[in-house]
Each structure stands twice: as C-alpha cells, then as structure tokens.
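Workshop exercise sheet. Pairs work together: one partner reads the sequence aloud, the other fills in the structure field after running the prediction. Swap roles for the next sheet.
Pair: D.N. / O.F.
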Amino acid sequence: MMIESFRWFGPDDSVPLPWIRQTGAEGVFSAIHRIPYGELWPREAIREHKALIEAAGLRWVAVESVPVHEDIKTGRGNDLARLFENYRQTLRNLAAEDVRVVIYNFMPALDWIRTDMRHRLPDGSECLSFEPFRLAAFDIHALRRKGAEADYTPEQIAQAGEWWRSLDDAKRESFIKDVIDVFPGCKWGLSLDDIRARLARHAHLDAAALRAKLGRFLAEVVPTAESLGVRLAIHPDDPPFPVLGLPRIVSDAEDIEAVLRLADSPANGLCFCTGSLSACARNDLPGIVQRFASRIHAVHLRSTQRLPDGSFYEAAHLEGSVDMPAVVRALLDEQARRKATGERDWQLAFRPDHGRVMLDDLGKPSGITPGYSCIGRMRGLAELRGLMRGLKWERDKRQI
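Structure field:
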C-alpha cells in the first residue's frame, strides 16, 4: 500500500489536522505558505510546522511546495544568486528535520488555471472545470491580451463574446477572481494589471528558453539535494497546454524525459499527477508510470473527464478519462520493486488530489479552497484505498 495522505495548507486551513487523521490518512503534503516566494525557510519554522503535524498523529511526507521565484523562471533580476542560495539552504533545513521530498512547479506567471470553480454536476455536487471559450472570454475581453485571438478558434471567439456579454459586472468580477486568484494556500488579491505585468515579464520566453531556465535552476540546486538525500519532484503543467500565451514544458512524456535529462540524478524527479496529465488525450498515464517509475517521488491521484471541444471537468477519482486501476497497479509494481531491491524509502506517498464539493460542504463554499473540500477528498481517498487493497489482494492471490 502507498502512504495515504492529504493536502494541508497550515493552521488556517478550513480542514484541520484532526479531521485529516479521521479520514484514515497517515501523512500530509504541506508547506509553510506564509513565507514569501524566494525567501529562506528557517529551520525553526520547519520544526514548528512539523511538530504541529506530528502532534496530530500524522507525518509530513512531502513538501508541497517550495515555490520557485519568478525571477528564476525568467532568468532576470539582480538577486538570482541569493534566490538560488535561499533554495539550497531551505533544502538543507528541511533535510535537517528529516523532510526529504520537495515538490515544485515551473509554470510561468500563474499556477493551475480553471474557468469555473463551481461546476454543477447532475448529482448536485460541484467540481472544478476548464472550458476554452471561457478562457478566451477572460483573455480577450477581461485581460485584453494583445494577439489573444490567434490562440482560439473562430467558434470559441464567438462563444466567448456572447457569454461575456451575458454577464453583469458582478458576475464578471467573480469570474475574473476565480481565474487569477487560485494559488493554493494563499490569496494574493491579484488584479488584471498584476497579471498583465506578470505576462510582460515572461514575454521573451518560449518553451526552449523556459526549459533552459529550468536547467539552470536544476544545476544550482540538484547537487545540494542529492548530497542531502532530498528528492525534488516537479509537478506537471496544469492544464498541460499553453495558456494566455505562456509556454508549457512539463505536459507530456517527451517533456518529462527532457526535464529528467537536464539533471541525470535521482534527486531530479517527478510528482506524478494523473489529473494534470490526463487533460491531454495523448498522454498514456500507465505508460508514463512505467517509463519513469524510478524517478517518481510523489503522487497526486485524480481524474478528469475530457470532452470533445477541449473542455474537461474533474471527475470522481475512479471515473472520467483516467484508467485509475492501471495507473495504481503500475505504481504498486514500482513500489514492490523498490522494496525488493532494498531501497530505504520504498513507499510512495499519494494524496487524493482535489475533490468535489458535496453534502454539507455545499453550504460553506466560501471557506473552502477550490478543489480542497474535506468530504469530497475523503470520498476519493476511500475509493483509492479500496482500489489499492483490491489490487493487493489480487497480487497476493497470484503469489500463493
């Protein structure tokens, strides 16, 4: 069995640690979100955060995440040396407290993007969804990005305009906030001008240039991570295709191969996220596990339901477009291989990523981070637990 975990955003999380323990989870994926991007994580702050987790009877199994400052992604600024050293020292401080799996992403300017945080499903529950025409409405009519029309089909542009005109000012403001202010664990209160400034800082980057910046980052931090026994795990792009004119470099198997080649070290690995990767139809998720198994250091399990027009919504964990039994079987096979070869940290930690808002959580959406309701994730954890136990029973029966 993999280590069952939950995301925890810290003391202000609407889902407190005692509730997480009641779900049956053993560990948490967590970060110290109050520390600004690029700043050093003091060892004392790490120790205090870990103590809160352990006092609840849980383990801090993965840092999610130590964010990469935007100046590192753009390669510009007068403070790069300090930013790299802060990252290295943060890794040293985490290792000193025996926290050794560190997730990060290299998505420029923005984190994950959805266009509807409260997509209503036929059973009355709500989930996150992405619709290209809504992104077109944001890009063309709200953000007014120069040249945005070139990124959408005529049908999407027409649909975007009609939908945008149907919204009153309050609904437009709510929609804009949903798109630009979903950074997990913190609310920055970004404005459209802030987003325009962020995009402008990345305007000189194409995919090759952004990959080169990632290569420099890895060259600066992987040797330190390797010496400490820390495993870095890059999170795939979400969604796994260009948005708002921004390049993506961790969207499919070829991208992952390129990232791992940038630093050929066990410290340079992958956070395997079925939800992010499944939004791209060409991604063979079980095949990706098998291809990169030894470099997978953390796991997010969720499913998306892809639709013909390029939209997707976040399905139940065992439904949608992901062959979850095949994915979990491949992960368990890799875990068994690690155990058989005597690897010290042979167990993989996973968490049910995102979840529907359902039952009485529907009455308190304002206090819930989008995608991170308690009941919906608990349902996902229970379903994945049952799947794992069934696959383990199947494996054990074959070995008799």
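Discussion prompt: The two ends are 19 Å apart (CA to CA). What would you look at next?
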